[in-house]
Inverse folding.
């Protein structure tokens, strides 16, 4: 497990984040993020409109490039029910913002990945604004069921900034290929950045 941060950092190096904050290289998904605007997005997600998303499992190579076909994929709407997609044309582009990007400069996202045994801790995501720090989500992954090497929560704001999607990611660090499984997702009203 000690090599996981280096391998994951190599996988992130090929991602091309597009954010307003200057990017200073990848941050390993197994450490706390203290530099907002710098954490590359691993999960594949696209907003269909301001109230529904499509998200997919995927594989990436050592350079962060996609390998093979996306899937399986799900559609999640305002009703909160995820529907597995049987057929879907990949016409939408995924969100290429960093996973800690926010719609307003007045706030920042902080992410802390789950810590695996022997001292397990849940993955967490917070929004920090002038008014204080608000926990967005907490997830304790079932390591026995998911069989991954790293676990994180990735927030993604809707185009109008009114909703936030929260993806629970299980990242498998294989030889030459990384698997990114979205173990769960939810849509919530975006917290205020005041």
């Amino acid at each position: 497990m000690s090599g996981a941060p280096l391998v994951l950092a190599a996988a992130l190096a090929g991602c091309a984040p597009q954010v307003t904050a200057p990017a200073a290289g990848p941050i390993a998904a197994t450490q706390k993020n203290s530099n907002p605007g710098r954490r590359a997005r691993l999960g594949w997600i696209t907003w269909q409109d301001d109230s529904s998303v499509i998200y997919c499992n995927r594989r990436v190579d050592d350079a962060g490039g996609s390998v093979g076909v996306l899937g399986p994929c799900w559609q999640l709407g305002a009703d909160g029910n995820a529907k597995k997609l049987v057929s879907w044309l990949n016409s939408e582009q995924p969100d290429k913002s960093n996973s800690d990007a926010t719609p307003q400069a007045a706030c920042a996202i902080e992410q802390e990945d789950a810590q695996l045994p022997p001292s397990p801790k849940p993955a967490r995501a917070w929004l920090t604004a002038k008014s204080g720090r608000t926990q967005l989500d907490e997830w304790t992954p079932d390591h026995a069921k998911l069989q991954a090497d790293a676990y994180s929560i990735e927030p993604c704001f809707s185009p109008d900034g009114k909703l936030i999607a929260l993806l629970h990611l299980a990242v498998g660090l294989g030889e030459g290929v990384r698997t990114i499984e979205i173990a769960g997702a939810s849509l919530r009203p975006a917290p205020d950045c005041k």
Summary: DSSP finds two helices and twelve strands in the chain.
